[in-house]
Amino acid sequence: MRDFGKATNTAALGRLLALTVACGWLASAGAAEKPFCESELIFPLEVWHNHASCIVETPTGDLLVCWFHGSGERTADDVKIEGARLRRGSRHWSKRFTMADTPGFPDGNPCMIIDPRGRLWLFYTTILANTWESALQKYRISSDYRGEGPPKWEDSEVLPVKPGPEFAAAVNRTLPTAEQAIAQLHLTGRDRQEAGEFLDAMRRHTSDKLYSRLGWMTRAHPFVLDGRRLIVPLYHDGFSFSLMAITDDWGQTWHTSTPLIGAGNIQPSIVQRRDGSLYTLMRDNGPPPHRLQQSESRDRGETWSPVTDTALPNPGSGAEVIALRNGHWVLVGNDTDDGRNSLAVLLSDDEGKTWKWKRHLEYEPPGPEAGSFHYPSIIQARDGTLHASYSYHLARRNLPKDVDGDPAAKSIKHAHFNEAWIRQGDPRQP
Fold it and tell me: Where are the beta strands (DSSP E) in 253-385?
């Protein structure tokens, strides 16, 4: 028998192994660096309203997407949470299935995550009184979600949102007075009156236990910190600001962060910096100029810095940011001040200080006949590529019609692409 324990042979074997691994890595990296982007509708265009999707990759490499479906949103009692699955290696999505449905009530704004134990979590809201402020935040957990059809849910719970004792004090301390808001925003006429009424109402609502505990909703992916803490980003359309729900025991108990209060900052998306701090970008639901708003936390999501504007335009639409395994960040959202006709993917190599590369997943010239491509969800798969899902709503008059003659205009779209495709930028127009 040859002696592979000798130092010379061991060194040679080590170099051979290192070279083999390096060559394999370089080959796969080279393949990954070839730009590509492919996309498809998850189901054909239809009249029904389909909106607010979220995408995850399962441990076996399948994709799972959820969204809400019905004849409307909060005022339509037939709205439910639907889903579909794309098997690894397949190019065809499964038939749609129901993920959650509260009979007689609209369900909406679903999001998902797969925790370190491999369990699927589905978060969604049930609208109790056909207003966003009456939203009841719920979630389901499944360990059996890889077969055909919907997941088999083993837990179905209400997420109890109970803002802490400092909630009202923080709101009163942070909100401007009506006079300050009018001066800062140069408001006149009816806008002056509405600003004062809104600020007065917000202060009253903070001391109303029912109002301050209902109405919180999810949008972007929840965030797992250090493999142990689950942070669920929430927002409230009545308060028009955000809050984080936090559990350190996988849903046995929950508590909330301090509120993130700004000028209409909602639908937060969380990313972690290299130094361990958390950073969030939020939709701008406030007065112009419309920009994605930002905040940071240096205590694992418990408290957040004052909310400020970024330089990134946002037309009052959801956006999502993620950190790639190489440290780069990817942001997907509508890159306009007004309108959802343009959906872009941005890439940063300095943790969001600058966004050097941008490419569009969808674009139509603005106007009454432009489509809406919005509410994106994005993940990095195990193979390093990127998957996004988003609402795909067309508005042209020449759309195909359903049996009642109504335009079939709405679906959820999936896009699969890589970082190299983003770096290429948009093709030059002829």
Answer: 255-256, 265-272, 278-284, 291-297, 308-313, 320-323, 329-334, 342-348, 357-363, 372-380
d(CA 211, CA 204): 10
Total Cβ atoms within 10 A of residue 195: 20
Task: Say if CB 257 and CB 302 are below 8 A apart.
Answer: yes
**pTM to 2 decimal places:** 0.90
Best CA proximity match to 113, nearest among 245, 281, 298: 245
What angle is formed at CA 429 by the lines to CA 424 and CA 430, rounded to 5 degrees?
Answer: 130
Amino acid identity at 43: F
Neighbours of 162 (CB within 10 A): 13
Tell me the backbone φ, ψ of residue 421, rounded to 5 degrees. Answer: -65, -40
Identify the helix (H) or strand (E) that includes residue 53. Answer: strand 49-57
- Extract the tokens encoding 340: 């959802």
- 375's enclosing H/E stretch is strand 372-380
| 356: number of Cβ within 10 Å | 12
Q: Which of 102, 83, 67 is nearest to 147 (CA)?
A: 83
The pair of structure tokens assigned to 296 is 């940071």
Which is nearest to 93 in space by CA: 394, 379, 418, 413? 413
| Per-residue model confidence as pLDDT tens for the chain (430 residues) | 333 333 333 333 333 333 333 333 333 344 458 999 999 999 999 999 999 999 999 999 999 999 999 999 999 999 999 999 999 999 999 999 999 999 999 999 999 999 999 999 999 999 999 999 999 999 999 999 999 999 999 999 999 999 988 899 999 899 888 788 888 777 888 888 888 888 888 889 998 999 999 999 999 999 999 999 999 999 999 999 999 999 999 999 999 999 999 989 999 999 999 999 999 999 999 988 999 999 999 999 999 999 999 999 999 999 999 999 999 999 999 999 999 999 999 999 999 999 999 999 999 999 988 999 999 999 999 999 999 999 999 987 778 887 677 788 999 999 999 999 999 999 976 4
DSSP 8-state symbol, 187: -
